[in-house]
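As a warm-up, study this chain.
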Amino acid sequence: MADSQADQGAASPPAKKRAPPKRGRTRSKHDAERIASVEWSRDGMQAVLYLDGIPQGLYDFRERAGYCRLNFPNFLEEKGDTWRKSTHAWSEAAIQRFEAELYGMAPDPHESNS
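Now compare it with the structure written out below.
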């Protein structure tokens, strides 16, 4: 009988949407809220996504490149592509340049240039 009701389009209760748990640990009530912010460069050619004050992604519209801590998403390059899409590997040097320009600080020359 249940199959015939499903076949007739019987409504099922809506599924609750949940964020996936963080890798390596379970979610708790304290993890439920996160602070997300986007900072733009002064010239409007770069933007950084911060989660809880930690940069997670940077888009550089001048260089047509994106950087992500998870190196995602990646696609095969195709003829005529104007954006780099085969890698989105994180670049600590790129975020340091962004923050140095935004806040008027000199980047640390001893930090990694990756």
